[in-house]
Amino acid sequence: MSDVELKVSLKHPCFSGEANANRGRIHLPVSPVCNIQCRFCKRTFNKFENRPGVTAKLLEPRDAVDVIRKSLERCPEITVAGIAGPGDTLATNHALETFALIHREFPELINCMSTNGLLLEKKAQEVAAAGVKTLTVTVNAVDPVILDKIVSHVIWDGKIFDGLEGASILIDAQKRGIAKAAGLGLVIKINIVLVPGINENHIGEIAKTVSALGASIINIIPLLPQHEFSGFRAPDCFALNAAREEAEKYLPVFKHCQHCRADAIGIPGRGDISALVYGDLEKSVQVAETFSHG
To answer: Domains in the chain and their CATH numbers?
Structure first.
C-alpha cells in the first residue's frame, strides 16, 4: 500500500485489523435494487439475521445525514460511512446521492462503497466525485466457467444474460472498473465469497488478477449456505486458512470480517446500535418496507 492508502486503511474497521477493534462504521441501507443474482444471495427485511443483504428497512438518501448525526452521538468512534446494500450501490443513484450529502456534511468521515462492479467503470468518476475514498468489489471468480456456477444472471443494458455470456460480461466489467477506480486514487478491497467445491482452488488466480488491476487488500468471506446454495457446506477453518494463504501471495488479507448487515452501526463485534439509532429517528425518518430484486 502507498502511504495514503495506509493512512486511510488504518482508520477503516473493514480494511485494518487494528481499526476493527476500536473504530466504528455505519452502513446506510439506501440501495434497493441489484443487477446480478448470485446463487447464495437472499436479500430480505428482518431485525435478527447478522449477514449481508439484510436490513430492517430501507432508508431514503435525504435522511442519511440525520442518521449519521444520531449515530455519532451514540458512537463517536465511527470513522466510516458505508453503503453495502441491500441491493447493489451502483444499480440506482441512491448511494451516490447519499454519499454526496454525507461528504458535504461530514467531510471527516471516510465514504466507503461496496459493489459487484458491473457498472463501476461507467460510474467510477461519479463515485470519486461523491467523496468515496474506499471501495469494496466482490469478485468471486475471474474464469467464466467458475463464475457461471456462482452467478445465475446479470442485467446489462436492460437485458438479462445468463450462462457463460453473463459471467463473461460481469468479469470483464469488474476488471475495467477496478482498474479505472484504482487510477482515480480509490483504495480498493476485494471480497471473495469462498464456495467449497467451486472456487476454493481459484483464489490465487483471483488475487493475482485484482492485484495487477490495482486492488490493495483482499477479504475472503466464508459461504453462508442459503438460497440456491442452501445444500452446500460452509468452508471449515482449514479451507479458509488455505484460501487466505493463496491470496497472501499477492495481496494483504483482511481477517476480521463480521458478515455485517446492510444497516449495521457501531464498532464491529461490540454490539450493533442500529435499533437505538433508528428508534431515536422513528418519527422523522421515512423508510420503505419493500425493495426490488432486480
So the answer is: 3-288 (3.20.20.70)
